[in-house]
Write a structure and sequence with these properties.
Rossmann fold, seven-stranded parallel sheet, 13 helices, binds (2R)-2,3-dihydroxypropanoic acid, 12 strands, alpha/beta
Length: 322
């Protein structure tokens, strides 16, 4: 007899997570880590009481409308939920959760890596060594910029933004930020609030993007806003590619209007990102690995399971977003 709720897990998850899941639920796993298309997802969902997806599976309104009625929840293995139409889920009565907090440290680490990699020309340097192009050392060789003591602008001072600010303080950076509302004094510390994106961009040396992708933030960093940054400025993105207007950023990087960029997330990822980025030496590029540590991936899975356990015990899940 099996009366455990059935959870469709769309990707291969860490072993410890799959084990814990199997203790509490009947898990429909994906051992080959196949990327499900919409039709296959809907076919498998016919046997499920809940879905545990990643941001790689998309749930626009049309897909949500076709979910079988037995699906009660979408418990995401991600903090970002731009792959799910939350309004459509609410309308259909499907609970949606995410995994906040547990990936803040890992993502802040990648934000710092991107800042340093972009500022110190890490892509170029690595390529030169690997391709046996390193022929000389001179005072003018591979000279980059220092981030120590510079002004860091954080766009979206939520959990990840705040942890990134803490790490950056270790580099003696002064912290500026823009949010819809200023943080209270305890969370803001010495950070300087700017009530507009424009005000922030003209006051900083390095921009780190941490706001979620939404209709309000799509293409936020566009040509006009990039023009407010100074020529030595660096742009870093660990949030979602949608916040950046790629054509505008590529032009700014090519023309020297800004100095460099460090990107972990992209429009069209993984295989249809703006080709301009690949050609530019002043871009330090990573493949969406902000949360990719053993510790964090386990914690994300456990958090998703906690949310499912709450839902199927009739309690409010801790991380409900719809
Ligand atoms: C997140 O959790 O949103 C990461 O980007 C991985 O999906």
């Amino acid at each position: 007899m099996n009366d455990k709720p059935v959870v469709l897990v769309t990707r291969k998850l860490p072993e410890a997570v799959e084990q814990r899941l199997a203790e509490k639920f009947t898990a429909l796993l994906n051992p080959d880590d196949k990327l499900y298309g919409t039709e296959e997802l809907l076919r498998l969902a016919a046997q499920a009481d809940a879905i545990l997806p990643c941001h790689t599976e998309k749930f626009p309104a049309a897909t949500i409308a076709r979910l079988p009625d037995r699906v009660k929840a979408i418990a995401n293995f991600s903090v970002g939920v731009d792959h799910v139409d939350l309004e459509a889920a609410t309308e259909k009565g499907v609970i949606v959760t995410n995994t906040p907090d547990v990936l803040s440290d890992a993502t802040a680490e990648i934000a710092m890596l991107l800042m340093l990699g972009a500022a110190r020309r890490a892509s170029e340097g690595e390529r030169i060594v690997r391709n046996q192009l390193w022929k000389d050392w001179s005072p003018a060789f591979m000279v980059g910029r220092q981030i120590t003591g510079k002004r860091l602008g954080i766009l979206g001072m939520g959990r990840v933004g705040q942890v990134t600010a803490g790490r950056a303080r270790g580099f003696d950076m002064t912290i500026h930020y823009h949010n819809r509302r200023p943080l209270d004094a305890e969370h803001a510390g010495d950070a300087v609030y700017h009530d507009s994106v424009e005000g922030l961009l003209s006051a900083i040396d390095v921009l780190s993007i941490h706001c979620p992708a939404s209709d309000a933030t799509r293409g936020l960093l566009n040509r006009d806003r990039l023009a407010l940054m100074h020529r030595d400025a660096i742009v870093v993105n660990t949030s979602r590619g949608g916040v950046i207007d790629d054509d505008a950023l590529v032009v700014a990087l090519k023309s020297g209007a800004i100095a460099a960029a460090g990107l972990d997330v992209y429009n069209g990822e993984p295989d249809a990102i703006h080709p301009g980025y690949r050609e530019l030496d002043n871009c330090f590029l990573l493949p969406h690995i902000g949360s990719a540590t053993v510790e964090t991936r386990d914690a994300m899975g456990f958090r998703a399971i906690d949310n499912l356990v709450a839902i199927f015990s009739g309690r409010e899940p801790g991380d409900r977003v719809a």
